[in-house]
Amino acid sequence: MISRNNTVEFILLVAFLNALVAMSIDTMLPAIGVIASDLGAADPNNRQFIITSLFGGMTVGTLIYGPASDSIGRKPAIFIGLAIFAVGALTCFFATSFTTMLAGRFIQGLGAASPRFVSTAMVRDGLAGSAMARVMSFVMTVFMLVPILAPSIGQLVLFFFHWRVIFGGFFMAALIAGLWLGLRQEETLPVERRRPYSVSALMASGKEAFRHPVTLGYTLATGCVFSGLIAYLGTSQQIFAELYEQGSLFAIWFAGFAVALALSTIANGRFVVRLGMRTITKWALRASIAFSVIFLIIALSYGGKPPLAMLGVYLFLNFFCNGLLFGNYNALALEPVGHIAGMASAVSGFIFSIISMVGGTLVGQTYNNTVIPLVGGFAGFGILAFLLTEWAEAKRKTMAKA
Questions:
Q1: What domains does the chain contain, in order, with CATH numbers?
Q2: Which of 235, 373, 260 is nearest to 325 (CA)?
Q3: Are the beta carbons of 49 and 100 closer than 8 angstroms?
């Protein structure tokens, strides 16, 4: 038993804790233009920092909470993260300047990293093998609903209330999560299984992990793939709501592309055992690059504003391919370092988060009222990921022969 709850409640709790990150990103998207305008952002592209500053906080938190939860327990680590998340939400709620808004979003991200990553460790504490895979598959099914529904919730808030109500909702979500966790979930890591937090051990694990070319190559490739996603998150509101004048329909377009990611996750679960992670990622990446290069040529021929239907088809196909890469790349990166998986996962997450945040931000800031920077970013990051994974696989084969 992992808790005194029934299995359904435990799945819903873990899914809710995981979903705080997606809620904090996707609910915001319809509102970032209004927020930036109200708080006096100097440049239209500065609105993207409302998204990327949250990723900045998460990047720092990724390196902290996993090892910390091994030392103080899962529940205390999540409580600390939820408290920080709530402080960030209140900072944004009361913000009177754009700088304060970005500070609040960074704090939110710093807090959100804890429930996002430590809740998975809660599952691992009590379950293993197929039982853990079964629970996590249900968690991901619930989790995938958030990107589909969250932008519409944000749009509804804007219809009837002020944008600050969204941050009030984030505060309430943290409060509900804390009460639910505290009242209904037992600690899953007993005292006798805890170990002291050690910065030196974390650094040693990082060095060991990144001496292995497969771990290094797939971690860097993951950062490249996520860079495209962050560039999309930062510019999607500008592209759909403004460039294509979709207004409130932006939430529907966003939901459609979230469906593509959900379908790819389902497809991966069905075929990964039969085909293997390497085969799936190899062809998914090549397809993504081909779609992006072809559509970049099409976009250039239309002066950077191709027909909306064509853009929609391209993004749907591209996100389906990308969805086949995310989880598999992470698993392939950690495959050679299973004996230090926890520490290696924290360091790997920190590295690819930095890469994706920097890469996605740079592409987003080149937005010029066309889709060319975004599509070019997907193509360029895809090619980089291809080169990195080919290098990693060549090294792996060489090491296997030695």
A1: 1-197 (1.20.1250.20), 198-402 (1.20.1250.20)
A2: 260
A3: no
Non-local (6+) Cβ contacts of 146 within 8 A are 19, 22, 23, 26
For residue 69, give the nearest of 181, 174, 175, 196 by alpha carbon: 196
Higher model confidence: residue 62 or residue 164? 164
pLDDT value at position 283?
Answer: 96
Q: Which residues contact 49 (CB under 8 A, 6 or more apart)?
A: 102, 105, 361
Give the pLDDT confidence of 12-44 residue by residue, as tens digits: 898 899 889 889 999 999 999 999 999 999 999
**Average pLDDT for 174-191:** 93
How does residue 69 score in pLDDT terms, banded at 50, 70 and 90? confident
Nearest partner of 370 among 306, 284, 291, 326, judged by Cα: 306
Q: Please list, in sequence order, all residues whose beta carbon lies within 8 angstroms of the beta carbon of residue 377, skipping any fewer than 6 positions away.
A: 227, 228, 231, 359, 360, 363
Q: What angle do CA 41, 381, 215 make, to 5 degrees?
A: 115
Mean residue pLDDT across the chain: 89
Cβ proximity of 41 and 100 under 8 Å: no
Question: 320: closest CA among 298, 297, 291, 295?
Answer: 291
**Residue for token pair 């995938």:** 144
Task: Reply yes or no on whether the pLDDT at 354 is more than 50.
Answer: yes
Please name which of 51, 70, 397, 360 lies closest in space to residue 222, comparing C-alpha atoms.
360
Tokens of 361: 């931000």
Where do we find the tokens 């040693």?
A: 204
Q: Which of 86-95, 131-140, 202-211 has the lowest mean pLDDT?
A: 131-140
Of the chain, the end-to-end C-alpha distance in Å amounts to 44
